[in-house]
Every structure is written in C-alpha cells, then in structure tokens.
Amino acid sequence: SSQGIAYEDVFEGVYYPAVSLYKNTKVTMNFGPDFKCPPQGLKDFRPMSDAASQTMVEYALADIIYHVENEGKLPEF
C-alpha cells in the first residue's frame, strides 16, 4: 500500500534508478547494448550506452536555441 508522498519539488530531470545494495550484497547488471535478457513488454527501449550521445545532442540543441533566442542581445567577445 502507498506510504504517501516520498519527495516533493524534485527537479524533473531524467533519473536512472538501478539497484540499492545492503552490506555484502553483489549484483551483476546489464544495461546493454547487448542484452542477455531484454526488457519484456516494452515497445521502445534503448541501452544506457545511448544516453551519452543523446545527452550531447540535447546540449547542442539547447545551445543553438539559446543563441537563436538571444541573437543580438549577447555581448561581443
């Protein structure tokens, strides 16, 4: 059953929860791209290895949008 709201006003970024360990626990994880056991019941999923290139694309687009929105307003260097 629900224990109530755990967190409020948390940044709405992207989070990748994976595992929590206690004491001498060991775990082996496979985040892809070659999945030993691919996720079942999901139409679209990508390996974590795609996250780095996706982040670079998002940063580049954010920079472009910033410069377009602020054209003529930024100081010359």
From TrEMBL:
GO terms for cellular component: Set1C/COMPASS complex. Gene3D superfamilies: 2.60.120.920. InterPro entries: ASH2, B30.2/SPRY_sf, ConA-like_dom_sf. It comes from the Eukaryota. One of its GO terms (molecular function) is transcription cis-regulatory region binding. This is Uncharacterized protein. The lineage of its organism: Eukaryota, Metazoa, Spiralia, Lophotrochozoa, Mollusca.
